[in-house]
Amino acid sequence: MNSGREVSDGRLTVEGFSVAARAFADKWKIHNQSFPPWSWVPLINRTLHLSNQQEEGYLSLEEILILSSLEESPEDESLNVATDCLEKEESVDHTILVQNQENEAHYYDFHIVYSSSYKVPVLYFRGYCSGGQPLSLDVIKKDLPSCSVSLLHESKWTFITQEEHPYLNRPWFKLHPCGTEDWIKLLSQSSISTGCQMPVDLYLVSWFSVVGQVVGLRIPLEMLN
Fold first, then answer.
1. What does residue 67 show for φ and ψ, rounded to 5 degrees?
2. How far is it between the farthest Cα atoms of the chain?
3. Alpha-carbon distance 162 to 62, whole Å?
4. Backbone angles phi, psi at 182, to 5 degrees
5. Helix H or strand E encompassing 98
6. Residue 151, number of CB atoms within 10 A of its CB
7. How far apart are CA 217 and CA 38, in angstroms?
8. Which of 36, 90, 133, 195 sits at a 20 to 30 Å CA gap from 5?
9. Which contiguous run of DSSP H or E holds residue 31?
C-alpha cells in the first residue's frame, strides 16, 4: 500500500488519515463557512507509535443547526443550514436541528473515524431528540433528503449499520466502509489516466463528496480543487 503523499490503491495509513483529515478540515473552514468547522479530537494515549509528531484522532462536527424544509425544491434536497436568526439563541446555538412533520427538534452529531481494519475513513453519526432520547434509523431516514434515502436503497457502496463507537463506547450509526476502498480506487485510477495520482490531501474531500450526500451534507465544489 502507498504510504506516501499519493493514493493509488484506495486505502490510507493512519498517518495518511491524519494528513487528509487536517487538509479536509482546513478546506471546509475556508469554503463552507455556513457550517461550524470540523474539530480534530486527539487521542493522546494512542499516538506514541506515529511518526513525524502526528497524532491519532478523529474529526468531529457537532452542534450545527440545520433546518430541513418541507418545501425544498427537487434540485436541492440537501439539508439547509440556519445560522443568523438562530445563532443568538443559546439553547440551540450551533446544534443540528431538523424540523420533521411533528415539528419536533432532532439533533445530529457526525464523526469521521479511521478504520484500522479497512484502512479507510468511516462516517459515524447519531441522532437524538431535544430530551436526549436516541433516534431510530427509521426516524433518521425521515429526516434525510429523499435523494439520500434512495441512495441508501440503490447504491451498492453504502449502507447503514449500528455499532459501538470505537472511542466513545456508545452505540452510533455508521456508513459501512466495505465498498470505500473500491470506489476510491476507481477515483484514483481516473486521476492516473489523466497523468496524475490522487494526493492524500484530497482523499477525505473526494470521499466526503460522496459519503456526505448520504446524510444530507454536501461540500462546495471549490473544496475539490
1. -110, 125
2. 53
3. 19
4. -65, -45
5. strand 98-99
6. 16
7. 13
8. 36
9. helix 14-31
CB 225 within 8 A of CB 27: no
C-alpha cell at 32: 463552507
Q: How far apart are CA 77 and CA 96, in angstroms?
A: 16
Mean pLDDT to the nearest integer, 102-108: 74
- Neighbour-count burial for 14-51, b at 16+ CB within 10 Å, e otherwise: bbbbbbbbbbbbebbeeebeebbebeeeeeeeeeeeee
Q: Hey, what amino acid is at 13?
A: T
What phi, psi does 205 have (nearest 5°)? -65, -50
- The terminus-to-terminus CA distance of the chain in angstroms comes to 25
Q: Which of 129, 147, 178, 196 is catalytic?
A: 178
Kindly report the pTM of this predicted structure: 0.79
Report pLDDT digits (tens) over 14-60.
999 999 999 999 999 999 988 889 999 998 765 455 555 567 899 99
Measured CA to CA in angstroms, residue 164 lies from 60, 102, 171, 174 at distances of 16, 29, 4, 10
How many Å apart are CA 26 and CA 125, to the nearest integer? 21
Contact 122, 115 (CB under 8 A): yes
Known catalytic residue at 178: yes
Residues 118 and 214: their CA atoms lie apart, in Å, by: 20
